[in-house]
Automatic annotation (TrEMBL):
<dbReference type="InterPro" id="IPR002686">
    <property type="entry name" value="Transposase_17"/>
</dbReference>
<dbReference type="Pfam" id="PF01797">
    <property type="entry name" value="Y1_Tnp"/>
</dbReference>
<feature type="domain" description="Transposase IS200-like">
    <location>
        <begin position="9"/>
        <end position="124"/>
    </location>
</feature>
<dbReference type="InterPro" id="IPR036515">
    <property type="entry name" value="Transposase_17_sf"/>
</dbReference>
<protein>
    <submittedName>
        <fullName>Transposase</fullName>
    </submittedName>
</protein>
Amino acid sequence: MPRKPRFRLPGLVQHIIQRGNNRQVCFFTQKDYTVYLDRLRHYAHQHHVSIHAFVLMTNHVHLLATPQVENSISLLMQDLGRYYVQYVNKNYARTGTLWEGRYKSTIVDTDQYSLAVSRYIELNPVRAGMVDHPAAYPWSSFQANALGKNIELWQPLPAYLSLANTPSGRQKSYRELFAKPFSDKTLAEIRLASQGEWVLGSEHFKQQISIQLSNRRPISPSRKQPIHG
């Protein structure tokens, strides 16, 4: 089955997932996490990508990011992946690939879904049974979004800024979101979109994306694309 073309629409939030090859471990020591985050900050700045949420798990990474220019996420992931593989191979006397050949990404409806995906990302360590609460996991953006830690690479989502008028108010409102469990519907939608690289959002939002893409790729499973002009 041919690969879907990448989403190359600047200014739209994307949920990105990159997994270790055969789900192998990608982070071995605390230094590895710090090196990855430092390079993520560096290449995000270089390629004009805003990072809103992230989590580094032992064998995969989730990012919620907005590219400011076309193709900037692809460039970010290429440079970051290349650097980190070289770092790991050098420091652990190994050779060969580290990541799966292709990261996954999907466009996220900023208004209705971006905060939900941010929560989904930061709850990964809880779902994996690594911690009881996201605040206990040091390698995620929960530290910035909910606790106000200064993380240089982090930039707030527009929906996050609308939670309150002050930083402390936004952090409090964001923490309160975690008191509510995900609905089965929302969880299923996020997982379906991320696994299939579909657009995550309302039908109106999907229609808008389809028009911007000029129907060059499907945006939903088994969806008949409208014909324009």
